[in-house]
Design goal:
The protein is mainly α. The chain has two domains: 2-92, Hypothetical Protein Yqey, Chain: A, domain1 (Orthogonal Bundle); 101-152, Arc Repressor Mutant, subunit A (Orthogonal Bundle), CATH 1.10.10. The chain contains seven helices and no strands. The longest helix has 24 residues, at 51-74. The relative contact order is 0.10.
Length: 153
């Protein structure tokens, strides 16, 4: 729940600073979290979502904005693309530091050794271990092929 308090504190600060763009993005973050809280309550989770799910929400929001920015740029709408990129910067403030390529390779080999993976069939176990330890710190869409290469070689 620490992440939520950081987001709420940032929202209050944006209000004080009269930073409309920043405030708008933080409100979007809060709305996405509240939507997920409501969905969690219907599934029987009374406390809503934890920090790990909030990180997943933030990562998803970042990815959506990257795709939108690329689409706007291809369509020649640089103003909209810049707005999406500005939103990404605000969202990324709440995400943990992204791992470097070397750190990712090291984390993959550690996870493979930890679960005792020997073939491609163990990819799910390896990915599960990585997701539990490094949520929000790496792009799992890009990590999947690396894990697959390590397991198939």
């Amino acid at each position: 729940m620490e992440l939520r308090s950081r987001i709420n504190a940032a929202m209050k600060q944006a209000m004080k600073d009269k930073s409309a763009e920043r405030l708008s993005t933080i409100r979007l973050i809060n709305a996405a979290i509240k939507d997920r809280d409501i969905a969690a309550r219907t599934e029987g989770k009374e406390n809503g979502v934890g920090d790990d799910e909030v990180l997943a929400i933030l990562a998803k929001m970042t990815k959506q904005r990257q795709e939108s920015a690329k689409t706007y740029e291809e369509a020649g709408r640089l103003d909209l693309s810049e707005r999406e990129l500005a939103e990404i910067k605000v969202i990324e403030e709440f995400l943990p530091r992204q791992l470097t390529d070397d750190e990712i390779r090291s984390a993959i080999s550690d996870a493979i050794n930890e679960v005792g993976a020997g073939s491609i069939r163990d990819m799910g176990k390896v990915m599960g271990t990585l997701k539990s330890k490094y949520a929000g710190q790496m792009d799992f869409g890009a990590v999947g092929p690396l894990v697959k290469n390590n397991l198939s070689s």
